[in-house]
Structure formats: structure tokens, C-alpha cells
Amino acid sequence: MWKPAEKIRWYPDPGHLPDAQERASSTLFSPLQIGRLCLRNRTWVPAMVPWRATDDGYVTPEVLDWYGRFARGRPAAIVVEATGIRDVPSGPLLRIGHDRFLDGLEKLVEVVRKESGGTTRLFIQLIDFLAIKRRPERGKFLNRFLVITQQHRRALNMMDAGEAGIRSAMIAMSDNDLEQALTPREFEALTKGYREQVNDTHLDHIEELPRVLPDLFAQAASRAGKAGFDGVELHYAHAYTMASFLSATNQREDGYGGAASRRVRLPLEVFKQVRQSVPENFVVGARFLASEAIEGGSSLEDVCQFATAFAEAGMDFLSLSRGGKFDDAKQPKVGAAAYPYTGPSGYECMPQYISDEKGPFGRNLAATKAIRQAVRAAGFATPVVAAGGIHNFEMAEATLNNSTADIIGAARQALADPDWFRKLETGHGDTIRLCEYTNYCEGLDQNHKQVTCKLWDRLQLDEPGVRKSSDGKRRLTAPDWAPE
Ligand SMILES: Cc1cc2nc3c(=O)[nH]c(=O)nc-3n(C[C@H](O)[C@H](O)[C@H](O)COP(=O)(O)O)c2cc1C
Ligand code: SF4
Asked: Residue 415 in contact with residue 441, Cβ under 8 Å?
């Protein structure tokens, strides 16, 4: 993973632990009721992909264990991992693109209801993504994949050469010379692997995205309702299709790209169709980026405009993330695909303990606050979820009380200790396992391995009934905890 040049080491801090009176009068543990969103308090576990679905996208016993374990910590809400809305193979990612996935998803809902004693609201994150290929071998790319054009002949000054001649000439060229001879997209396909983009409107299936996506999202949301979820989170963040429509890098000329008002058009059309396809009390919110954290990304002003438009359209919550883009991802090894969390924007998404002077805790809060203020100034009370390095009561409480957010999302801290909110709430804050923000879990995610936390995955391995990783070396969920 990319790290800031300063390489300053940061440590999590348990902060002040609240006594009974502080807990009772806290904002964190006070209920929230704004529009359709009704939570018993302000605690929220954001989406985290644990790589536990089957290769064809079904819920497994391991998926049930993962969510059951978070539910035993009784957060007010859990968002189920990014789940594919199309009926196409997508590896071991959960899918919701067909009714055959309903059985498994219903079981997931049942497990969370049971393990949380009915106290946790359950949402599922709906994602669409475009194709990405592995980085090819140089020879294979130049000999087989590259389509030879007149532009190549001109660049090589070989107007009369046949295809084979152009290919052999290119193979003999240095990468620097090749960069001049290929288009930027071709050079990217060679050095990082081919990746479809929303700007590729010469491809029919990319051109027609605005016509097909509203219905795909709406059908997936309707299925989520049938499976018993309380709502959906539309994934408009990070490196995926909908975030790419919102991005300032979206230059489509069909009315869905260019100015911020056009870039937000498809996300609004998707939301509108989703809203029409689900019951009246079903919650529909979105996760999007407070900052893309890339050169040429959307400005804060653009994002305030998006957030206000979402609130005005009637979204039930706005969850803000940061970065996580392909644009600045590290060059993958030959045979591997680029991964959007390996560059500086990836760092902003899941900031790690080796950091700069700003540190990994709360890097997204200033932007989150500005966006919430814009939404409030426009007259909307839509709740805002903050995330990014929040790991103690003081920080959570300050975030709520200084008008930054209405709900506290904690992903890695909840993975490190799924009971942490409950421990705080019941006066057992001194037993919380604090996340160290080393991103061991993220490394597993990047390698598509079952995600666990280094603080507990080797503990009590011989406990009866403990489910282990495929190599048998790690337990897949945190040991249980009960108040004494
Ligand atoms: C293993 C892992 C998987 C993640 N998967 C998702 C995901 O499916 N969807 C999403 O929006 N964010 C995902 N994230 C990002 C988190 O939801 C969160 O925004 C990020 O980790 C920063 O919050 P934190 O500091 O509380 O962990 C993932 C994070 C981790 C560590
Ligand atoms: S492995 Fe555990 S301690 Fe390390 S960052 Fe992930 S959740 Fe935190």
C-alpha cells in the first residue's frame, strides 16, 4: 500500500471512557429518527467485503458467521458488503442480480435479526462495476491484443508496413518510445491492464449505461426488500460505475458527463427508480465520496451540490467515504489486476498507521462537515454518516456534537472488536480491543483472501466449533464476548 512520505507512526487512543451518566446523556447512544431512518443509537458498521461468498455469489455459512458476529455487538446498523446487481460472474462477491440469490440473503437477514435481538437495522450495499483485465505480458499484448491502426503506422513512420511488421517493430521498442506510439489508453492497457471507463461511449454497453442501470439497481433493491432487509445503500463511491459518473473525470457528451449538474443526473435517475420499486418505509441512501482525492477529481463544491441534490430527491441517508480510485493505483504485477486502494487515493480511503502530520484518524471529517453544512443550509435534515479512523468515544461524540455527522461509521474498529460499541454502552470500555490501523485486513482483501483481523485471528484456535480459513491457520470471526 502507498504511504505518505513523512512516515509518522500513529497509535490509536482509547480516549476518555464514559461513566454511566455520560453514556446516558451522550449523543452517540441517543436514538435517531429522521425521516425513514430510525436507529436505536448512532452506531453504524459500514460495508466491508470479507471474501466469503461462493464463486458464483451465494451466501455461505462463513458469510452468515461474519454478519452474525457483528450483530452480536448490537450496532444500530450494519451495511452488508458491496453486492453485485447484475446476473454475471463476478468471483466470490455477493450477488443480488437474480431471485435465486434470495434464499441465502433471507438467511443473512434472519441471522442478524436473531443475533442482535432485533435491535440492528440491516442495509445492503448495491454495486455496479465495469470490466477490468489483468496486466498482460508485453509480448502477448503487442502480438495479440493490440489492434493495429493507421495511427500506429504513422507514429512508427511505417505507412506501408503490414500488421506483423508493426508488431515486431513495437516489440523491439523501449517502453518510453512505445508510450509515444500508443494512445494513452493503449499504453495503460499494456502497463496496468485494460479497464473499461464510463467515457468509453464507443462501446455499446457503456453508452447504454444510463438506460440500463436504473432498472438493474431498482430490481436489486426490490429483491433486497423481499429478502427482508430494512434498506439499501447505493454504492456511488470509490472506483465503481456510479462514482465514475459523479467524477470530474467523466467527460461523456450524452448529457450524463461534463458539468456537475450532468454528472449527478444518472445517480439521481437510479435513486428515483429504486425509490419507486420499494415499499414506502424501505430506507434508501447512498455512499459517495467527500473527496475523490485524485488530481482532476470533483471539487468540494461539486460534492456539496451532489449531496444537496440527493437530499432534495429524498434519500434517507448520505454516507461519506473518501478516495479509493483506479486513477492513481499502483502498477500491478504481470498477471494481476490493478487495485483501487494501492495509491494515494486508496490511502485516503483506508488510512493506515504510518501516516503524515494529519494522521489516519478522521481525515474525512472536515469535508464531511462542510457537506453536511451545505445540505442543512439548503434546508434538508438528511442524516450524514461519517467514517475513517473513528475508534473511541471522545472522537465519536465530538464528531456528532460539532455538527460533522449524525451517525458514526466504524469499519476496521468494528472488525478489530465487533463488541466495541456495546462495551462502551455497557461500561466495559476498558476491555475494547483497539484497531491498530495496520491494514493487515486490507492486505487480505486485496489478495481476495478471507478477511480477518490480526488482533484475534490466531486466538483460541482449538475452541470447539470454530470455523477456520481455507488454510486452517486463522479463525474467521472474533472470539465471543459477554459482559461479566
Ligand atoms: C476489508 C475491507 C473491505 C471493505 N469493503 C468495502 C465495501 O464493500 N464497500 C465500501 O463502501 N467500503 C468498503 N470498505 C471501506 C470501509 O467501509 C471504510 O470506509 C474504511 O475502512 C474507512 O473506515 P474505517 O477507518 O472505520 O475502517 C472496506 C474496508 C475494509 C477494511
Ligand atoms: S487487521 Fe485488525 S487491527 Fe489491523 S487494521 Fe485491520 S481491523 Fe485494524
From this structure: yes
- Distance between Cα 79 and ligand 1 center (Å): 10
Considering only CA atoms, which residue is closest to atom 2 of ligand 1?
Answer: 48
Distance (angstroms) between ligand 2 centre and the Cα of 138 equals 37
Q: What is the C-alpha to C-alpha distance for residues 241 and 57, in angstroms, rounded to an integer?
A: 19
Burial of 358 (0-12, 13-18, 19+ CB in 10 A): middle
Share of the chain above pLDDT 90, in %: 97
Question: Which of the listed residues 94, 238, 321, 350 should we mutate to test ligand 1's pocket, taking the one with most ligand atoms within 8 A of CB?
Answer: 350
Could you tell me the fold of the domain covering 8-131+222-446? TIM Barrel (3.20.20)
420 lines ligand 2 (CB under 6 A): no
| Cα 343 to Cα 1: distance, rounded to the nearest angstrom | 7
Q: Give the chain's largest Cα–Cα span.
A: 84
* Confidence tier at 4 by pLDDT (50, 70, 90): very high
Residue with cell 504511504: 3
Domain ranges of the chain: 8-131+222-446, 138-192
14 within 8 A of 356, measured Cβ to Cβ: no
Ligand 2 site-directed mutation target among 45, 353, 419, 436, most atoms within 8 Å of CB: 436
Residue among 123, 46, 62 at smallest CA distance from 449: 62
In ligand 1, which atom is closest to the CA atom of 414?
26
**Using a 6 Å cutoff on CB, does residue 440 contact ligand 2?**
yes
What is the model's pLDDT at position 483?
Answer: 81
Task: Note the pTM of the prediction, 2 decimals.
Answer: 0.97
